[in-house]
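Notes continue from the previous slide.

Worked example: a multi-chain complex. Inputs as given:
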Amino acid sequence: MFKTIEWKNNSVVMIDQRLLPSQEVYRIYTDFLDVAEAIRKMVVRGAPAIGVAAAMGIALGASDINAKDRRGFVKEFKKICKIMAATRPTAVNLFWAIERMKRVAKENPKLGVDELKQVLIQEAKKIHKEDIEINKQMGRYGSSLIKNKAAILTHCNAGALATAGYGTALGVIRAAVEQGKKIKVFADETRPFLQGSRLTAWELMKDGIDTTLITDNMAGYMMKKGLIDVVIVGADRIASNGDTANKIGSYSVAVLAKEHKIPFYVAAPISTIDLNIKHGDKIPIEERDTKEVTHIKDIAIAPAGIKVRNPAFDVTPNRLITAIITERGIARKSFEKSLKRMVKAGNIS
Amino acid sequence: MFKTIEWKNNSVVMIDQRLLPSQEVYRIYTDFLDVAEAIRKMVVRGAPAIGVAAAMGIALGASDINAKDRRGFVKEFKKICKIMAATRPTAVNLFWAIERMKRVAKENPKLGVDELKQVLIQEAKKIHKEDIEINKQMGRYGSSLIKNKAAILTHCNAGALATAGYGTALGVIRAAVEQGKKIKVFADETRPFLQGSRLTAWELMKDGIDTTLITDNMAGYMMKKGLIDVVIVGADRIASNGDTANKIGSYSVAVLAKEHKIPFYVAAPISTIDLNIKHGDKIPIEERDTKEVTHIKDIAIAPAGIKVRNPAFDVTPNRLITAIITERGIARKSFEKSLKRMVKAGNIS
């Protein structure tokens, strides 16, 4: 099995997701600036994986700080965190991971520079390990929602490649399959970055899960034909009212699911819930390079000079979401209450 | 200005739409079998343009028939029509054009072989010429629905490239622009064949019409942001109740338009209306080669061996269609009545 991201020999190793499925290339990062660039350029992507990468990037940067005392160290450490925070704006897991790394530094005021460096590395590795456990727990909860012989539509990649491993939305699918349920998956290709065709199709095929690739604009047709029973997607940030930012096109799928009376589930760790944001309109939406839309690798698929919009995410309002699956249980409406309870008090299921 | 299709020096000349926008290549066809193949392979596409190509292909094939008498000619002529009818199943304009060519042969029983060949060529050229006039008339009617400063979303290419010239949906946009209205167009890229990014963006840019390219899955986002006022699409076949087969993804756009209370207009010539078909479920939907989904030119964008669905069209039910714009006026609900009246009696506006 492939590894999405790993801390190895004091470096960060990541599979280059831009090259999948045609090439399986692992890149070794020894400079935190290159990790930041890898996040920006989507070598690694998916909210939980971005969180892990940011934590490891910070640990890497911290270990290279050349400071005699703690004060000098903290000054440089803050700079590193700031650079990491500027990579991508939407996935809140990035900021969550950065905050967690900062907290570790703060909560160990007596450690010397060298010891602190080690603690930060341990914390990044812990975030990585926890993420896999979280996904498996999410899978156990979520799979209770999936009937035998269900046909599941998923958008983008919320799989092992979007996390430290196992996946959020695809983790739920994996758990259902592990329970012996017969599952059929439809994967939207997810333009422009093609996470569905390049990543989801690839990782589900590797697991021998029955997967059919469609273009994004075929989802409505498949639903109308009665071929889809359930939709499950991941999330990049969930507001306190349940409004969910996820890969561009998720909102359209949610509207189609409503039209066809198909349940629409979001699977995401607690770290994706941002109680500081009241509703989805406040979630910053990243607009990416237009070349993602106009080119496939170096092939132009649009006339030169055409105006392009490329929002990388959209917001699905809470009314279109049937339930939100987390590692602490399944949140139902009203999400204001259930999400708050889940974040603050732990397990509610 | 480019020409989509033309009868020239006893051959059929077509712009190769597979190569746009990077190359503007005109192919010269002297064998009707190559015209049939060009329709199948989508060198030419768009329901009205397919109709013109079929008529010209038949005229070309007929002119090559080596028969001493009319009886021998008709036998070969029927074979040609049959081959042409087997190219693509959904666009009814193909069958309409073939029927029209057959009728010309039937209605001129006294003509000799050579004269009949000439009459068939004249008929094909007439269909071509009429199509442009029809589009302009459709534009005049349709533009009355478009307010100044409207932002229009269109899907696929229902433009000059989908017709003999001017276009159906894009004809309405062109007419509105010619009337001095300030129009902003959003073009869905329209996977998998990319008619939106490759063709619509290209031809609207050539006309200096303000066009913004988006991926199919961004339509919902743009509507939610209030950036779309109107949707206009073409059609490949309209059932007698108004259910409309059009490029895959049109149905999803129609559902999104309903969700956002945005009018959804279909622009198509009378020849696209199939009164023999009661409702959309009876329209045959072509399923095309999976390579259209898994590859962009020769670049694989999905893992080898992945299962793929590739329906080329979907059906938008009449309840989601605000009005149907034809060269004889604007049909409103109930479409059963308005379409029948339009087809049988002519102009109703």
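Summary box: The radius of gyration of chain B is 20 Å. Chain B is about 40% helix and 15% strand.
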